[in-house]
Automatic annotation (TrEMBL):
Origin superkingdom: Bacteria
Organism: Saccharomonospora glauca K62
Protein name: Uncharacterized protein, copper resistance protein CopC-like protein
Region feature (Disordered): 123-172
Segments crossing the lipid bilayer: 178-197
Signal peptide, first to last residue: 1-27
Amino acid sequence: MRKPLAFVTTLAVALLAMLGAALPASAHNVLISSNPAEGDELDTAPTEVVLTFDQPVEEADVNEVAVIGPHGDQWAEGVVEVDGATVTAPLRPLGPAGEYVIGYRVLSADGHPVSDEIRFTLTSPGPGEASGAPDSAVSEQGERGEATGGDRAQSEQSDEADRNAEAANDADSEGVPVWVWLAGAAVLLVVGLVVALRMGRSQD
């Protein structure tokens, strides 16, 4: 019985190695670097945001990069470009000094969107001009209504992005779902056990 047991052991080790190689490929993308980086203090305004991930990013309409300035203005302008694992978003010339927040949402290699925020500080004012703070004469009721409408629009955009991401995941024929690997491993393990049992009986 030693040979059948050795055969089963070898088969099990091979299956575990195969699953170990398959599962990391299905993980979400992880941001490994950015420019500007988290906590940077810059005296010169950047002209673009560059995000680098550990895996290629899927090219899709759901990829978004926003840069919000100290007074709530949006400074990202232009098309978000994807080149393998690198995402680049152009900026219009930054203006006031202070903290800027980079918010990103990209379609991960496994078909699911990932998002996060990066904060950096501009220590010297840039040449750009802010679009202007909200009118201070707006009534509190109007401000509440505007905030509610903005939240609703943001929620609808988020839902649409999730739907697009799911559709892209379903349409992606290049990636192999994890369940396929698990099913294949189970079938191979059963076949190995049957072969091992037959080999043991024939030796007996």
